[in-house]
Amino acid sequence: MRGMLQRIQRWAERRLPALTRYRRPESLPIELHRRRIYIVPSGFGIGFSALLAVMLVGALNYANNAALLLTCLLGASSAASMLVAFRTLDGVRLSHIRSGHAIAGQSIELTLAFDSSRARNAIRLDLADSHIAFALEANASAQVKLTLPTMQRGWQPLPRLRLWSSWPLGLFRAWSWLHPDQSVLVWPRPEAVGPSPHAPANDARHMRLHRGDELAALRDYRVGDPQRHIAWKASARHDNLMVKDFEQPQSRPQWQLDWRQLGGLDNEARIARLARWLNEAQAQRCNYSLWLPGDEIAGGSGPLHYARCMNALAQLP
């Protein structure tokens, strides 16, 4: 029964222009209203309607007022449930969508923010093969998380979302389509194996200072230096206060990841290798820079620097 209803729904979407009115992407926020909410009886609703018809025929045939009254009450309840199912979706608003990070071939997590002026129950959201049910509090926002499969790197537009509900009795199914005009950025898939990048030899440009235990030198006093580090005897022979400096240079090589150094590979192979080098540099907590055609990212480290480099790789043509 469910499969037959889905086939009927797909046929209706192809044939009836009213149901395809909102197939084009829309800018956020998107609010549902009566012109874009559709209602059909569910399988259970069709069976319940047949049962009411049999009860009505029996009650009229035997002139049973009690059975007729029960049939009318059940019919009124089913009609009221249709209105409640409609009001469950009417006024629901999709305010914004946030996406996480994912490599091509993995699923990316989406966080959708819904809000409403009144409480809602048993709302369901379908996105590709992901399904989730949620409720809304009055004048509050609900953060709904779904996963979207990805196939290749770059900008991937979001497909249509189906918001539906069969609340409260399951007799009717109210649904609507949301098609936000938004895309998610998918990172490139790193190559499995390959050569490692070569860091340049240590030089003064890649030296940083660290706090050691042994005295390195004397320097002029700077605001904020602790008094216990002041060299009083040495200061007596100078016009300014002298401070014991315990900072010593420590080697910190920087990886220079350069698109131009991979001339023997095609573009996608270069991107895959640079993505693997970025993963290795991030795992080893190294400083690294990235040179790409039209974009040069200075040296840095940390999750934000890694995300910036991967975003740049993902957006290459």
Compute the number of structural domains.
Answer: 3
Q: Write down the overall geometry.
A: elongated
Percent helix among the residues? 25-40%
Largest sheet composition? 5 strands, antiparallel
Quickly give the structural class: alpha+beta
Instruction: Give the CA-CA distance, first to last residue.
Output: 47 Å
Strand content: 25-35%
Strand order across the largest sheet? 2-10-9-5-6
Q: Gyration radius, to the nearest Å?
A: 33 Å
User: What string, H for helix and E for strand, traces the elements in order?
Assistant: HEEHHEEEEEEEEEEEHEEEHEEH
Number of helices, counting only DSSP H or I runs of 4 residues or more: 6
**What is the β-strand count?**
18
Low-pLDDT residue intervals, each spanning 5 or more residues: 201-214
- The overall pLDDT, averaged over residues, is 84
Structure commentary:
- The protein folds into 3 domains: 185 residues, no CATH class; 43 residues, no CATH class; 61 residues, no CATH class.
- Helix content is 29%, strand content 32%.
- The chain is built from 6 helices and 18 strands.
- Helix 2 packs antiparallel against helix 3.
- It starts with a helix and ends with a helix.
- About 4% of the residues have low confidence.
- Pfam families: DUF58.
- InterPro entries: DUF58 (IPR002881).
- Keywords: Membrane, Transmembrane, Transmembrane helix.
- This is DUF58 domain-containing protein.
